[in-house]
Fold each of these.
Amino acid sequence: MDPDVATADDMESNASAPTERIALEEFQKKYISQWFIDQKRKEFLKLKQIRMTVAEYEREFVRLSKYGWKCVSIEAMMCKRFEDGLNKEIHLLVGILKLKELVVLVERSCKAKELAKEKRKANIESHDSKKRQRGKSHQTSSKRSRVFSARSNTSGGFSSRNKSK
């Protein structure tokens, strides 16, 4: 093997991030239509988690971010865009952390999702418990009212036959 000839693996491992971006841009200009790139950039800019898991959202975010890299050229900007696309319940929990590393943000987002799920489950259990308590107290009060109404009908000591005489 000729030592002066670099392999693709050598070039990839030795390439710096700006060089890789320039190479990617040149490749895209040459082989991918501008319309396609624009569509993918728009898709990236509109990306929201909605019904995806955090892991699915991260995967899609990273995949599309190469088309919108100008919008997320700094990792802090990337984190902000990722955070803005998260569901509200997760966004509220991780937004206050002001994280600047995507890996950490994704990890905390996953934990926030788990916490939100546990909170929902606890709320449902609490609501069900309150319903059962209300149901028991309603049954007890309705039993009391039946007993009370039965007693009040007969409490006069006179039957309806005696009143008419």
Note: The chain has a mean pLDDT of 79.
Amino acid sequence: MVKHAFTGKAPNVAKKEGPEPVKEATLLNTFDEFIKGFAKLVQNKKRSDGTMRHWRTTRGKVFDFLVNHYKKKDIYFAEIRPSFGDELYEYLTLDAGSKLSEPTAKGHIKRKLGIVKRIRKQIDKFELTTGDIGLGTN
């Protein structure tokens, strides 16, 4: 079931009430969804426009990294390896067109991790509503 959620493929499970399965679970799609929701909070004066700019900048840096390092415009969560954060950090501090300082690069990594945690929560909610805890042979 987890594999289906990460790859965006529909599982062979009877439809039940609850959250919809994650569609096209890619890193940048999730960034875009998060930024869209965050923009509403900024409009309602519940979040800062400056923080919004940070999120948009981080998304842009991740996009540049994917294009330059992986030669892709987006990446499925299933393709993200444990070394992804280290590779992104190295790119931001050593290889990017405008290299970043260590603290700035770490801030971008931290925001990227927040996006990964967000998709993990969505998958957990989906598994709880479908009764699948991912222990099958999928």
Note: Helices lie at 2-7, 27-43, 49-70, 84-95, 102-130.
Amino acid sequence: MGFASKFAFWFSWWAVIVATGLEFPSRLSGWEVLTFRALGLLLMTYGLLLNALAGRTLKEYGHFDIRRGIRKPERLVTVGVYSCMRHPAQFGSIFFGWGLALLTASVPALLLAGWYSFSALYFILAVEERETLREFGDEYCRFLKDRPPFSFSPGCIIEGIRALRSKAR
């Protein structure tokens, strides 16, 4: 599956969540809405950070030559944020979607975010894993055994930053 299709999936997911939140506004008020929105901003920031670290790490370590644009990596990346989990960008995209849903503080948007999260996790584990295994073979098979698909550890962010800093030197 190409990058454009994957981008369309994530973008449409986020757009539907926002549209649902606007169509079915929250009935909460005061500190409750502020709490939801603060948590939403926190999750969106974490999701964007994971996405940015994953993308930059792929660009720096996944290609034999650095060119402009987004393309599939030519080699398996096992450093930085990828030393903690196999799918940091997608995991970050899920966090971003939950953050959007929390920003709306809308129950239907939150339910939709849950449904989309499960469908995204299925897609990642059923489709992405198969594609990556086909691309990298035995090397990815060993990588599968060593790392979980996702990790909540804040240490992953630190590893991601550390790897990019060492590459910059």
Note: The chain has a mean pLDDT of 89.
